[in-house]
Amino acid sequence: MAHSLKIFCCFFFFFLFSTLSIIPLSHQLEQHPLDSLTPNEFIRVQAIVNQSHPTTINDITFQYIGLNEPDKQALISWLQNHRPTPITAPPPRQAFVIARINHQTHELVVDLSYDNIVSDHIHHGFGYPLFTFQEQNRASQLVFNHAPFLAALNKRGLKVEEVICETFALGWFGETKQNGRVVKVMCYYLDGTVNLYMRPIEAITVTVDLEAMKITHFRDRLVVPVPKAAGTDYRESEQKAPFGPELKGITVVQPDGPSFIIDGSRVRWANWDFHLTFDARVGPIVSLASIYDTEKQEFRRVMYRGFVSELFVPYMDLTEEWYYRTFFDAGEYGYGLCAVPLEPLRDCPANAVYMGAFVAAQNGMPIEMPNVFCIFERNAGDVMWRHTETMIPPDLITEVRPDMSLVVRMVSTVGNYDYINDWEFKQIGSIKVTVGLTGLLEVRGSKYTHKDQIDEEVYGTLLAENTLGAYHDHFITYHLDLDVDGESNSFVKSKLETVKVTDQTSPRKSYWKVVSETAKTESDAKIKLGPDSAELLVVNPNKRTNMGNFVGYRLIPGSVASPLMTNDDYPQIRAAFTEYNVWVTPYNKSEKWAGGVYTDQSRGDDTLATWTSRNRRIENKDIVLWYTLGFHHVPYQEDFPLMPTISTGFELRPANFFEYNPVLKVKGPNNVRWPNCSVSSSGLN
Amino acid sequence: MAHSLKIFCCFFFFFLFSTLSIIPLSHQLEQHPLDSLTPNEFIRVQAIVNQSHPTTINDITFQYIGLNEPDKQALISWLQNHRPTPITAPPPRQAFVIARINHQTHELVVDLSYDNIVSDHIHHGFGYPLFTFQEQNRASQLVFNHAPFLAALNKRGLKVEEVICETFALGWFGETKQNGRVVKVMCYYLDGTVNLYMRPIEAITVTVDLEAMKITHFRDRLVVPVPKAAGTDYRESEQKAPFGPELKGITVVQPDGPSFIIDGSRVRWANWDFHLTFDARVGPIVSLASIYDTEKQEFRRVMYRGFVSELFVPYMDLTEEWYYRTFFDAGEYGYGLCAVPLEPLRDCPANAVYMGAFVAAQNGMPIEMPNVFCIFERNAGDVMWRHTETMIPPDLITEVRPDMSLVVRMVSTVGNYDYINDWEFKQIGSIKVTVGLTGLLEVRGSKYTHKDQIDEEVYGTLLAENTLGAYHDHFITYHLDLDVDGESNSFVKSKLETVKVTDQTSPRKSYWKVVSETAKTESDAKIKLGPDSAELLVVNPNKRTNMGNFVGYRLIPGSVASPLMTNDDYPQIRAAFTEYNVWVTPYNKSEKWAGGVYTDQSRGDDTLATWTSRNRRIENKDIVLWYTLGFHHVPYQEDFPLMPTISTGFELRPANFFEYNPVLKVKGPNNVRWPNCSVSSSGLN
């Protein structure tokens, strides 16, 4: 999605060092090697980089600062020696920095143990780093001093003070010459609404060079009606009767408090233990997720690291101002940077606990992001397991265990779209990932006010007068570094195959059997999910259950989509990592971001697809599972002026990981009683 | 699934007329024409049928008694004239009865307005009616007086008092001669567990003629070890340490009570209004579901009638005692008959309200089924819609509406398997249907105690010593008689098609567009869901939005599965309705049960597949959507001795039904406050 969030960073600046009483993620006493960078570390990184380029201090912009994760083997061996008391030093703390220094992209590793620069490499390849909020903000302000733009507004009868602009990544469409760090600026009109996205000012294209911070091109192609403001505002305060039915108060209560413990970035709940950290590019990172095996009386490893690696959002509108809208929300805009503060009692239920995080501003200084995560126990009314036995007199036997789970939520609002990211931990051993899409569509202004007027391709649904909801896709690619009971894992595709019975040995003519194939190399593990029935497993080929089954976890897909653009189309070349729903790679520390490190104007030479072309061996190795879920979004009128959430996700579920049902011995819940309560409902605000 | 539920009916008998203080579904003052039969009506039906066959009273068994729904057009015109005051008489109350009278299957329509028999037809075709609990119970007791069976137990060293038997439908495997009403009886061993399903006594086959109520065949093929009892009991009272971690108390509270109103079988909540009734064969029936359109200030029709039409559960084990296990849980066993009383605070949350229902016993007398439904508002912590706007100074604009929904739940325990059926109504206009599968696997006893010993096809996973979890499928077929803003609807498949751009008019090489096809006849609407991208809609071609879009509802599939048996295999011929995930038929009152009326030993001559072979016109007609969801179930050790729930479902979601987002004007929730509470958690029991 496009966006600029120009105000947002300012908003967060107010919090800078003024609200440190909110306990940040990485503020615990004993720092863990996987913890996000602390405010102090951001400041030191900034100082070290600035000092290393002293003549150019004013020309340094920090496009990304994040933890340079320690070497995995070093971390694991440290962890194994770490408990109960640390006997070895932790791996060194390092930051990974992408900075523009004198108009070149530097990739630096800064060591925070020794306060020095370990490496400083200039990127000469294709593509540019993430945008900063500050440069997007400055770029989108330039138009207001650009006479042709003001004339264009005037021609349309629009008031300049009601115009809001934002920057859009340019993409790549086969140009051989590099464009430089250039963006397009598109504008919207408020004038009676806050829903700017429903009021696009169409057909004006402004091109801005971010390095020169100058407008390099301006075009006013034609005048298209700006859709009206009426009916677009979504604020409660602006709604008029008739209202929908009101519901009586409902809430969740935990009189004895939550059952989870947050200790710095470590979260423990029920049988789960994991770390939760935050990154400007990818948002939440769940690491070192282990589950306690009651029978074995030990924690067993499940996932070393899981996060959203990239989001690809191509629009299907080929008009001049739209064709290039093929966004990479993580690599271009920063999925973490776009996280928004969660609204208590609305974004998360009453029993939620909130956590903040820090990101670097363009000048390298830390910015606090309050309430970026919420963590809560979900009590949705579902059943974890049950049975009623009717066959044994004299009574019915009924055993039921309600389902409880732990949810970690972050919302990233990448301009118009709000993505609700849930990592859900279940007592049965599942990690369930859900993403909900809501917020505002990108709509195109149009002359049409009724479908019957349309006799050309308009690339979308007529949602309201002069308002076309453009067809588009969302592909979200997850990096899932599973370590099922240890690092050495294999990927197994258990295909369900029909067997025909032709030898009269059975009255049946057919059945299905399970044929398991272990992927030897990366090409064996590229899977487009479809009607072929198969169970997809990550197993540990070195560990077996007592019955002799390999211990494993199973990927249960939710709704999936495959790209419909042709493979030779430029956006699809850049997003070739969406071509398959499943990929498996051998662990490689540098392979984190499926669309490559430099996604802005990337050319597809550094993606999951190119990495796997080496066809490396993946059997009984430390492997990473990549999963892409997706939606093709055909807008409907219900999505106007704001979309109800639509969700999908996937589940990682134990499959012969435990010897038997791991929740068999979970006791039934206690009844929660409220004696002597006087109760009232009152307005939230 | 196999089952007999021999005790269950007895259990319910205790409630017969002794607990009528529990308000049954159909006990409201003004009866609605779609209400389930009342106890009094069951009694009258019994009396009328018995009187009509006076010489044969002792030979009458009632295999099914349910409401004979009124003619749809008559009902709709009555409804249209009914409000605000009834000006016409309601359609006549009738019962549909399937009875065995003198060993013939009679299909009777009994009129309850005139207390007479409207029709009495003898079924001479293939297939037999549902089993009654009573006859299954009697059949499964016969073995205990059968010397060869007792000898077989003796040979195995098993105590007869620890043996539990149940009856299994025979299926059909190409026999040309009819077998008569015959079942197989299989037995299990308790002796230290209540989990009889984990202790099958293999290789003994007893065949019982239900009409003669005699054993007609006995075979003891070989001795297979009975799996041990240890580790199979799932009752909390029988578990031993180490236990899983305990969670602190959590509950949902609604200090002002629920927001829904139940008036007889009518349920109103938020913008929804529907009827909820119960049927012995299919369980819950949701009818006359309408949604209030705040803008139009009127209720608009969505679904005339929706229910589970059939369940098909074929096992993939071809051994002599297993090959025929290809169950039709609704048509053979009664999905409603197998409903179990819901356990408050465990099967449903603290804010649930419970409802009972009635079914007919074999003698035609009503049996009350208490707590067969629960209804509750779900407060799962999800977000209905949200947006944070960062672009407009000086503050962030954040608007969030938490998601609330209304859930109607029934659990049907068809022998070993527990199906959790949810019909969920959402304020956004969606009807979301979920089915959760839990309970006990059917396992086969085996000599194997480790996977490495196995070098033959065993048709399943070795779950524990001597215990093979058989591969099987679950297909659940829903009858969804949508009436989107009226009866005349069309089925539209909007395909997303790639368009290649070769004329240099765009820097892009491709995009996708939407190509909508309206199904003219039934064959156009048979769809195997797969990777082809399409939106599936039921639209009203006579109603358009202000923008000119046809008003519609969209089917959003969840996980689907297609049959893997060959189409010419006998069980698949009987279950040909599972061949496609989606079918559309013109409304026909008699086409309710996708597997045919007489499913026991059916031959596939009366299924959804045969009905549609007429290829009737379905465009702009009163149409019915049939949707089949499914699982291929490969058991894992976590499913032993009891399976954690695995769920899937689908959503019916408004698609250009409303002019704009129907929950835009839903106000944010009130904060629920609890002043002056003293709080404690205490044991449930």
From TrEMBL, chains A, B:
Name of the protein in question: Amine oxidase
InterPro entries documented for this protein: Cu_Am_Ox_Cu-bd (IPR049947), Cu_Am_ox_TPQ-bd (IPR049948), Cu_amine_oxidase (IPR000269), Cu_amine_oxidase_C (IPR015798), Cu_amine_oxidase_C_sf (IPR036460), Cu_amine_oxidase_N-reg (IPR016182), Cu_amine_oxidase_N2 (IPR015800), Cu_amine_oxidase_N3 (IPR015802)
SUPFAM superfamilies: Amine oxidase catalytic domain, Amine oxidase N-terminal region
Domain of life: Eukaryota
Protein family (similarity comment): Belongs to the copper/topaquinone oxidase family.
PANTHER family in the cross-refs: AMINE OXIDASE, COPPER AMINE OXIDASE
Active site: 329 (proton acceptor), 417 (schiff-base intermediate with substrate)
EC number(s) per entry: 1.4.3.-
Molecular-function GO terms, alphabetical: aliphatic amine oxidase activity; copper ion binding; primary methylamine oxidase activity; quinone binding
Domain spans labelled Copper amine oxidase catalytic: 251-664
Domain Copper amine oxidase N3-terminal: 129-226
The protein's required cofactors: Cu cation
Residues modified to 2',4',5'-topaquinone: 417
Positions of the Copper amine oxidase N2-terminal domain: 32-119
Signal sequence coordinates: 1-21
UniProt cofactor note: Contains 1 topaquinone per subunit.
Post-translational modification: Topaquinone (TPQ) is generated by copper-dependent autoxidation of a specific tyrosyl residue.
Entry keywords, A to Z: Copper, Disulfide bond, Metal-binding, Oxidoreductase, Signal, TPQ
Protein's GO biological process: amine metabolic process; response to abscisic acid; response to auxin; response to jasmonic acid; response to putrescine; response to salicylic acid; response to water deprivation; response to wounding
